[in-house]
Design brief:
With 125 residues, the protein is an alpha+beta fold. It is built from four helices and six strands, in the order αββββαββαα. A six-stranded antiparallel β-sheet has the order 1-2-3-4-6-5.
Amino acid sequence: MTPEAETALTRLRPLCMAMPEACEKLSHGMPAFHIEQGKMFAYFWHNHHGDGELAVIVKTSGPDEQEMLLDMDPDQYFRPPYLGPSGWIGLRLNRPDTDWDRVADRVAISWELVAPRRLLEAGGR
């Protein structure tokens, strides 16, 4: 992993692990964050298949939200291969103007989209 990727992961990891019952495991050689005994809500993406991207991949509510994000800021967001058709969006982490509050927000929204009802009813994040 490059130093730039290590720095991004060091900033991303606590945002993901702050979510209730968050766990980290490796998926395809990169850190993936999921709810314990449950679904993935964030995936660290670093030069996957040589694409040059450094990003976090997060869930959206569906194609409409995905398109809205892509239209709103195409330099910040991208549709990741494999996961994009299922409603996931890539949020680039290697821009000089990366808004880490936005990253935290997108991670939290993604967590809410996959969290079981019992966690949401207990107050969520």
